[in-house]
Amino acid sequence: MSTPADALSCAAVLFDLDGVLVESGSTVERSWRAWAVDHGLDADAVVAACHGRPSAETIAAVAPHLDAAAEAAALELLQAADTSELVACPGAAEILAALPPTRHAVVTSGTRPLATARLTSVLLPVPAVLIAAGEVPRGKPAPDGYLAAAARLGFAPESCVVVEDARPGVLAARAAGCRVIGIDGPLLGDPSDVDILVPDLAAVAATVGTGSIALTRRSETHV
User: Fold this and answer.
1) In terms of C-beta distances under 8 Å and separation of at least 24 residues, what long-range contacts does 189-198 make, across chains too?
2) Where are the beta strands (DSSP E) in 16-159?
3) Which H or E element spans position 207?
4) CA 55 to each of CA 22, 90, 108, 151, 213: distance values in angstroms, whole numbers, following the listed order
5) Measured between alpha carbons, how far is 62 from 40 in angstroms, rounded to an integer?
6) pLDDT in tens, 67-97
7) Catalytic annotation, pick one of 6, 16, 144, 190
8) Span 17-37, average pLDDT
9) Which of 3, 81, 105, 180 could bond to 129 as cystine, CB 3.0-4.6 Å?
10) 94-140 tens-digit pLDDT
11) Which of 6, 18, 184, 195 is catalytic?
């Protein structure tokens, strides 16, 4: 799609968590760098691989000799306790407040305790539908999480819009049949793969109608 859209109509909005609703990049990278050093791994390579997919999958890829499930559980416990630098992403609180609880969900590559800790630490609501790592057979870039979220909300995935900031998540959304709003940044990959490109959620206006939600890129937004 060479020409980005300015508006999308949908039944529900499915949000990624980190980098979309909660700015956790420094926390994520700090914990992964420390983990890499502890295990004698290339920290830069580990950080490059960690974004947008479940921790256990990253560990299995970069350190197949380790017990990925056990390492991931320990790592995410540390991340859940490290909330001092977390902030809500611009526009996150406003768009969540505008959407009915039955019309949005969060799909994250982190565990449920980690997702809950991050949302509550920045005073964002924990949604009624939250699909976390380990709750679907495959993590991103497989479509399982977004398919599960759409089903839990009661909508076809083709009627949902996903908001993502990382390439694995965009691939997952596309594989599920969803349209995509991309948060511009170094993790997104090819911006032509998304329907609307914005710097953050503050650039998206959400208008809820009787049967649909209109998501519009604000006219003053430039990316």
Assistant:
1) 191/4, 192/1, 192/2, 193/1, 194/4, 194/164, 194/170, 195/1, 195/4, 195/5, 195/8, 195/161, 196/4, 196/5, 196/6, 196/7, 196/8, 197/4, 197/223, 198/223
2) 22-23, 87-88, 104-107, 130-131
3) strand 204-208
4) 17, 26, 11, 25, 33
5) 11
6) 999 998 888 888 877 777 899 999 999 999 9
7) 16
8) 88
9) 105
10) 999 999 999 999 999 988 998 999 999 999 999 999 999 889 999 99
11) 18
Q: Which two tokens stand for residue 125?
A: 């609501």
Provide the whole-model pTM. Answer: 0.83
Total residues found in the chain within this entry = 223
- Please report, as a single letter, which amino acid is at residue 109: S
Helix (H) or strand (E) holding 168: helix 167-176
Q: Which residues pair with 197 in a beta bridge?
A: 182
Cis? peptide before 54, omega within 30° of 0: no
Respond yes or no: is residue 42 known to be catalytic.
no
pLDDT classification of 141: cutoffs 50, 70, 90 = very high
Residue with structure tokens 């009915």? 100
Q: With b meaning 16 or more CB within 10 Å and e meaning fewer, what string describes 17-53? A: bbbbbbbbbebbeebbbebbeeeebeeeebbebbbbb
Largest CA distance in the chain: 56
